[in-house]
Automatic annotation (TrEMBL):
EC number: 1.20.4.1
GO biological process: response to arsenic-containing substance
Name of this chain's protein: Arsenate reductase
UniProt keywords, alphabetically: Arsenical resistance, Oxidoreductase
SUPFAM superfamilies attached to this UniProt entry: Phosphotyrosine protein phosphatases I
Provenance organism: Aporhodopirellula rubra
Annotated Phosphotyrosine protein phosphatase I domain residues: 52-217
InterPro entries recorded: Ptyr_pPase, Ptyr_pPase_sf
Record SMART domains: LMWPc (SM00226)
Keyword RNA-binding: no
Class of enzymatic activity (EC top level): oxidoreductase
Keyword Oxidoreductase found: yes
Top-rank taxon, per record: Bacteria
GO MF annotation, one: arsenate reductase (glutaredoxin) activity
Length: 225
């Protein structure tokens, strides 16, 4: 594990407080309980074998699960957990497209975004985006896919359910060793309104802080291994 963060400064500035203990103190008791559950499950699997694979799941793999994948991998890197330790994925119960509003929000948070210049996300095309958070780590690839297809693990992964619809309508997650409900309110309700950008950024920041706590506490615990 590397103790020096290689995550770009604008991204760390978006998160604000980068001491995971202080971030955890700012969470509500209910959210701390959710964060603790995921940390415990990941720690258990990490002590058994590496890497641990996390697949974040919401219905369309368009907003919340994309945020969670990107922020979890970024937080892991910040705290010195490499992809030999933790690898993050995302998926849906059906495939649609990664919503351009999600990507725009992550760009505002400091990620460097690239994609095929001929792609047309405004038409609903399932565009492949590369989101870079560091010059020393590979980018996170964002596109919509079913949770156990196309670049995602098909077995021995932890399923993290990010929306209540997917959690309720997917009683069995094929191939998962563990299942954790880490539910978030969908920012979709703000689409097309004046609050759109603020709502997406608020959800992005909530997820960023919670992944910061998970990966920070996990990295500290693993130092005793």
């Amino acid at each position: 594990m590397n103790n020096q963060s290689l995550v770009r400064e604008p991204i760390r500035a978006f998160v604000g407080e980068t001491d995971w203990r202080r971030v955890k103190e700012s969470l509500s008791p209910e959210r701390r309980e959710v964060v603790d559950e995921l940390t415990k499950v990941v720690e258990t699997r990490l002590r058994e074998s590496r890497p641990v694979m996390l697949t974040f799941i919401c219905t369309h793999n368009s907003r919340r699960s994309q945020f969670a994948q990107v922020w979890a991998q970024t937080a892991a890197a910040h705290f010195g957990l490499t992809r030999d330790d933790v690898v993050c994925f995302s998926g849906g119960t059906e495939a649609t497209a990664c919503n351009p509003r999600t990507i725009a929000s992550l760009r505002r948070a400091g990620f460097v975004v690239s994609r095929d210049e001929d792609a047309r996300p405004e038409t609903g095309e399932n565009v492949f985006y590369d989101l870079s958070f560091s010059d020393s780590h590979p980018p996170v690839m964002c596109f919509s896919k079913v949770y156990d297809e196309a670049h995602n693990p098909k077995s021995k992964y932890i399923a993290v359910m990010c929306c209540d619809h997917a959690d309720e309508n997917c009683p069995v997650v094929r191939g998962a060793t563990d299942r954790v409900a880490m539910l978030y309110v969908d920012p979709k309700a703000s689409d097309g309104t004046e609050e759109e950008s603020a709502t997406y950024d608020e959800r992005s920041l909530q997820i960023a802080k919670e992944m910061w706590v998970v990966m920070g506490e996990l990295a500290d615990r693993m130092k005793t291994q």
